[in-house]
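ESCALATION

Customer reports they have been waiting on this structure for their group meeting. Please prioritize. Original submission:
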Amino acid sequence: MIGIGPFSIQSIGVVAAVLLSWLVTRALAKRLPEASHRLAGAALLDAVFWGVVAARLGYIAFWWEDYFAAPMSMIAIGDGGYYWWVGVPATIAFVWWRTRSMPVQRRPIYVGVLAGVVAWFAGSGAFSLLLEAPRLPDLQLATLDGKPIALRSYEGRPLVVNLWASWCPPCRREMPVLEQAQSEFPGVGIVLLNQGESAQLARDFLHNEGLALSNVLLDPASSSMQAMNSRGLPTTLFFDAEGRLVDSHLGEITMASFKDKISRRFNLASGASQDLPR
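Update from on-call: job pushed to the front of the queue and completed.
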């Protein structure tokens, strides 16, 4: 997981793209005698806000069944649930509406939006090409009954690794999502690595919460967090069948976000069965 402090590289990229859009908009508006660079900059930021709202609503609409089953997850904006192909047109439409009485402002704002979008996609593409995908680390762990097991024994199939602890509130809240995911995606190995707790504590938590989870492993030294560059708990990492990291999520994950990542990263239909090590 690449980032600065608690912020992912994707979040930093979005902020940088918006800042570039704002700077370009103001710079171009200053060159137009009838335009106000302050009004143009403010209109751009308003448009970005409503574009983000539209991107979120579009995502919720696409995954409405999962959000309807857990309505509070709609406000979990940290789950990464946004569709740019909804947000960008909404941003452009808002700019047109906002500047209907002052069309001279439109050109610098539209150029600013274009600059931000191009910078975002160019930066994302360049980052993907330059950065070598991390591999599944070679960790020696243990099952709840004390049997040693290597994390790489799960290679050869799509794999989701969740780092969690029973004292972590968002970890506790997302456990039903992971339980449901294990049921709906038997073709994906979903492994839950408990960080720094004893087998008894982990078993008691699962029993008290009524959770029927498989592939729960113990990492008493929390070595997984360092090996996978995790910046906090919970962390969910998605590895392909060759053991390459293809996506990650820091914080509580919703069912909609989980399904979205599975559908985008793994070419595997729900319900396909594979044998997994226990």
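Sent to customer with the following note: Residues 3-130 form one domain.
Escalation resolved.
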